[in-house]
Amino acid sequence: MLAARGLSRSFRVGASDVQALRAVNLEVQAGDFVAVVGPSGSGKSTLLHLLGLIDSPSRGEVRLQGEPTGRLGAEARAKRRLTTVGFIFQTFNLLHSLTTRENVEIVLQLAGVPKGERRKRAEVLLRTVGLGERLQHRPASLSGGERQRVAIARALANQPAVLLADEPTGNLDSKTGEEVVALLEELNAGGQAVVMVTHNAALARRAKRVFAMHDGELREVTGGPA
Q1: What 3-state DSSP class applies to 146?
Q2: What is the pLDDT of residues 46-56, one digit of tens each?
Q3: How many domains does the chain have?
C-alpha cells in the first residue's frame, strides 16, 4: 500500500549538508497501524512529508499502492496526495472562515465531488468522529480536541488508502490526546491504515508496529502493542 525504499533526505544549511533521513525502508500494508517515535529533530516529520508526497527525497523512492512516485510532476503529486493520502497535522490547519462541515467539504470539492454528495459525505464523517452537533460551528468555537477531530474527518474525506498523522496529539492535553489516539485505533480496527509520528512513547505503543527514529535512521522496535 505504501513503501519507502532507501529513502534519504538532506538539506543545505550554509556551507554544509544536513542529513535528515538516512536510507530509510518502511512498508505499510492494508490495516496496519504504524507508529514512529523519536525526539524532536530525529527526522520523523521529514519522513512523513516524504511519504505524503509533500516533499521529495534526495535519494530512494516512495511507492503508493505499488506505483513509484519519483517521476510524477507537481500536478500529479498533488492529485495523488488528494485522493490516496489523508494528512493530519499537529496544528490542525483548519480554515477559520469556514464552518466545520465546509472544512471537510473543501477537499471533496478539490477532488471534483458534486455538491450534494460532498455535503452528505462531510456530515457522515463528522458524525463518525463525534461532531454531528457541530456542523455549523467555526474552528474558533471548538476545543482543541474537536478541531483535531475535524482535521481527521477532513483527512478521511476522499477515502484515502493511508492516514498520515504528524504529532496529532502534540497540541492537546493528555486526556484529549488519548481520545484522539482512541479514535485512530477505532478507524484502524475498521480497516484504515494509519502511520503516526509522535514523541510520546506511551501513545506509540498503542500501535500494532512501532519504529524508533534517531538521527535520521529508522528501526523497528516491536511488532505489536505493549
Answers
A1: helix
A2: 999 999 999 99
A3: 1
C-alpha cell at 117: 454528495
pLDDT digits 0-9 by tens, 24-47: 999 999 999 999 999 888 999 999
Q: pTM of the entire structure?
A: 0.91
Domain coverage including residue 50: 30-56+73-222
Rg (alpha carbons) of the chain, rounded to whole number: 17
* Distances, alpha carbon 128 to alpha carbons 27, 131, 167, 187, in Å: 28, 7, 21, 10
Q: Would you say residue 171 lies in a domain?
A: yes
Residue 6 lies in a domain: no
In a domain, 191, yes or no: yes
Helical segments of 24-94, H only: 44-51, 74-84
Phi and psi of 181, rounded to 5°?
Answer: -65, -35
